[in-house]
Amino acid sequence: MTADIAISVGPGPARRDRLTRRIRLLVAATISYNVVEAIVAITAGTIASSTALVGFGLDSVIEVSSAAAVAWQFSAREHAVREAREKTTLRIVAVSFFALAAYVSVDAVRALTGTGEADRSLPGIVLAALSLVVMPFLSAAQRAAGRELGSVSAVADSKQTLLCTYLSAALLVGLVLNAALGWSWADPIAGLVIAAVALKEGRDVRRGEGCCALPAAATGAAPAEADACGCRPGCDCCG
Q1: Which pLDDT tens digit goes with each residue over 55-67?
Q2: What is the arithmetic mean of pLDDT over 19-26?
Q3: Are 162 and 126 in contact, with CB atoms under 8 Å apart?
């Protein structure tokens, strides 16, 4: 028995427009929150002489650059233009991951080998706890919209937002242990683990540049080797 089976890749035009608007709003919310987060973290870190808090604030700056790259991609109204910007956006997101990994690694080593001790910071603890609530929501919402839309860059940026959640958890643990028990080494150790995760995510994003069958998805016909997300086998570009 033979039959012609139409393979549908990606949402229809109306749904695609709604998802695009949703991603724009989520990216705008991510940028706005990270700007406030950066100001509060760097200020509180400077007052408390906390390298962890200052590093967390600089991570927020990197998050803004990544989200801004996705915002630039989705600022185009034409679907074809957004797809053309995909690879450039992916490169920016990947570089942001690598920059985050490099900074956190250097900052963690400096904290472990340094002689200064950070003071306790109640604003830092409150900020880290708040980020643990806000960031997972933004990440999950953008990831879901990006996957349905078939946007590798939107999914990649959502992973970086999720990484910020891990960094928030590490920061919270470090600040609490430092304030309660004086264990100043707890946060930089967790930072080294997060740096390794950031490096892996950056490598995955870079590999994803050549994995997603975007031109085929744009025409509505999936190549034989593509999966449901439009990715070739073995690729994690759509998460």
Answers
A1: 788 778 877 877 7
A2: 82
A3: no
Rg (CA), the chain: 20
Measured CA to CA, the distance from residue 167 to residue 97 in angstroms comes to 13
Tokens of residue 203, six digits: 């490598």
Give 87's contacts (C-beta < 8 A, 6+ positions apart): 209
Strand partners, 99: none
Spatial neighbors of 231 by CB under 8 A, at least 6 apart, are: 208, 211, 212, 213, 237, 238
| Tokens standing for residue 154 | 């939107």
Cα(160)–Cα(174) distance, integer angstroms: 21
Tell me the β-bridge partners of 212. Answer: 231
Q: 232 — alpha (psi -120 to 50), left (phi > 0) or beta?
A: beta
* Residues 6+ away with beta carbon under 8 Å from 193: 170
Residue closest to 205 by CA, chosen among 120, 124, 99: 99
CB 7: neighbour CB atoms within 10 A?
A: 12
Asked whether the predicted pLDDT for residue 98 surpasses 80, the reply is: yes
The residue to which tokens 């990006």 are assigned: 146
The CA distance from 236 to 208, in Å, is: 7
pLDDT at 9: 53
